[in-house]
Design goal:
By secondary structure, the protein is mainly beta. It has helices at about 5, 60-65, and strands at about 35, 40-45, 50-55, 70-75, 75-80, 85, 105-110, 115-120, 130-140, 150. The chain has two helices and ten strands; from the N terminus they run H-E-E-E-H-E-E-E-E-E-E-E. Strands 1, 2, 3, 4, 5, 6, 7, 8, 9 and 10 form a ten-stranded antiparallel sheet that branches.
Amino acid sequence: MTETERDGGESEEEERPGLSGQKPGDDEEEDLSGGMTETGDWRIQVSDEDQTILFELNDSAGAKSLYEQLPLTIQIEDYGGNEKIFYPPQKLETEDTPLTEGGGAGGLAYFEPWGNVVMYYGDFGSYSELYELGKAVSGSEAIGELSGEVFVE
């Protein structure tokens, strides 16, 4: 989302690159902030007073609709002993968003029935309405320690 869009102005979406699956090259410095990297990757940062986790988003409608709601200051909850969840203000788009195949710590997903975003700090399986949004590229070991109010940008 551009600053113009956040301020209620017209979208410049046609002029900017969309979400992409590009990965940073070995010779590039890793960008540890949210937003678009020089390689066209879309990233979000989730932090509380003590931890920061950086997620790289996939190229899906769900990831894009989450990104367009940022920045957020929101309560996070522990669920199931392997995930932290939060509820974005608006439901995410799921059309053309892949279902997750499961995985481990660092997975970022959207559980459509409840309308919550899930950050996994333990193993998880596939589920018919659990959509993949991305994965942690930094700080996945700290997901389980997140608590209270978090800032998502």
